[in-house]
Amino acid sequence: MEQFLALFTLQPGYKILDITAHTDALTEALLQRLGPVNGRLALAEYPGEHRLLPTVDGMTLQRQSVPDFTKPFRALPRDNDIVFIRDVLHRHSQPERILRAIYTTLANAAEVIIVTEAGAADTEAQLALLERADFRAGNVIEDVAEGVTVVMGKKMHMWGNGL
């Protein structure tokens, strides 16, 4: 878990959107890391198993329930510093629409991190989707945590639609 969390550095007031089919130990770890920086974690919960989450001093938790994998999540434009999408993109009926919404909600120079169970999704197809959605610097990390594959992309200022 620590190796995975080391992929990004949190700043004061950091805002993370976690689009997920399961709240789990990663969700709790994000809460614990956001507390000291007075951050915000917004959850878009797709169908799956979701834990009750502890209250963490200094941070805000927002939750929304998305009824099925044909519906989009809601988020304000340029409101998030990182978006995690966990076990949703490859199951969603309109993955390009989801990536466009993620692109819109990210601040410039922000990252999308796609986390899937190892072997559950075609990583080359995910990289191609990121490219079509104007994300840059796409890469695959398969050894950051056992049993998961991570695909990352960056919204770059002045690239694609990143104005």
Plain-language structure description:
By secondary structure, the chain is an alpha/beta fold. It has helices spanning 2-5, 25-34, 95-105, 123-132; strands at 15-23, 40-50, 60-65, 80-86, 106-117, 136-141, 148-155. It has one domain (2-155): Vaccinia Virus protein VP39 (Rossmann fold), CATH 3.40.50.150. It is 21% helix and 36% strand. It has a 7-stranded mixed beta sheet with strand order 3-2-1-4-5-7-6, sandwiched between helices. The protein is globular. The N and C termini lie far apart (34 Å).
Secondary structure: elements and pairs:
Elements: H1 2-5, E1 15-23, H2 25-34, E2 40-50, E3 60-65, E4 80-86, H3 95-105, E5 106-117, H4 123-132, E6 136-141, E7 148-155
Parallel strand pairs: 1-2, 1-4, 2-3, 4-5
Antiparallel strand pairs: 5-7, 6-7
Short overview:
With 163 residues, this protein is of the alpha/beta class. The chain has one domain (2-155): Vaccinia Virus protein VP39 (Rossmann fold, 3-Layer(aba) Sandwich).
Question: What attributes characterize this protein structure?
Answer:
single chain; 163 residues; alpha/beta; Rossmann fold; 7-stranded mixed β-sheet; 4 helices; 7 strands; 21% helix; globular
Give the CATH topology: Rossmann fold
Strand order of the largest sheet: 3-2-1-4-5-7-6
Helix content: 10-25%
**CATH superfamily label:** Vaccinia Virus protein VP39
Give the distance, in angstroms, between the N- and C-terminal Cα atoms. 34 Å
Biggest sheet features: 7 strands, mixed
Helix/strand-derived category reads: alpha/beta
Number of strands: 7
- CATH architectural group: 3-Layer(aba) Sandwich
Give the percentage of residues in beta strands.
Answer: 35-45%
The Rg value, from CA coordinates, equals 15 Å
Order of helices and strands: HEHEEEHEHEE
